[in-house]
Amino acid sequence: MGKKQKNVKKNHTPQNDTQNHLKDQVQEAVEAQEKEPQNTENQKDMKSESSASTPDAQKELAALQQQYDELKDKYMRLLADFENYKKRAVREKMEFMQTAAADTMAALLPVLDDFDRAKKNSDDENSVEKFSEGVELVYQKLHNVLRQRGLEAMKTDGEDFDAEYHEALTEIPAPTEELKGKIVDTVEKGYKLKDKIIRHAKVVVGK
């Protein structure tokens, strides 16, 4: 038994270990070589799948870009419509307020006419009816308030006749050469409300 153990120890040498190690390396190299074609095929398959998916991705990206452009265009149109709506609403509100104010002012004009006629008669030296101080104050206050609201009486007497502002009731021979074609008398005053005519002046024109 002792001799056999010595023989086993003699056979297990460093040279045998080196040979075994080389065999293992050769075996690993062979196995790796056998696996390489399979890996190459897998890489080819992955490349083909990648190349096949690229056109689909591009189509999807193009579709998303088109959808984005359409939504952006729709949004810009809605924004423009909303801005136009706001401007139109403000303009209509202003026009409504101006129209309402013009209607109110127009309704007050006959009252002003009566005041003006009464004031003119009271200023006549031969008139027995005179404005009291209280009525005079009311008259001045009414005119001032309406003037502050934009009401303005048109200038007529001695002015050139303008069909845009004046309505000629009749023509009479001009008292002087300078008054030919001009207004020689005002039958009813004309009024403007912030440059908008609410009543034309009724006048007599010299010829």
Task: Give an overview in words.
The protein has 207 residues and is of the alpha+beta class. The protein has a domain at 152-207: Roll (Nucleotide Exchange Factor Grpe, Chain A, domain 2). It is 66% helix and 14% strand. The strands form two sheets. A three-stranded antiparallel sheet has the order 1-4-5. The longest helix has 110 residues, at 14-123. The model is unreliable at 1-11 (pLDDT under 50).
SSE blueprint and pairings:
Elements: H1 2-11, H2 14-123, H3 133-148, E1 151-153, E2 166-172, E3 183-188, E4 191-193, E5 196-199, E6 201-206
Parallel strand pairs: 2-6
Antiparallel strand pairs: 1-4, 3-6, 4-5
Helix pairs in contact: 2-3
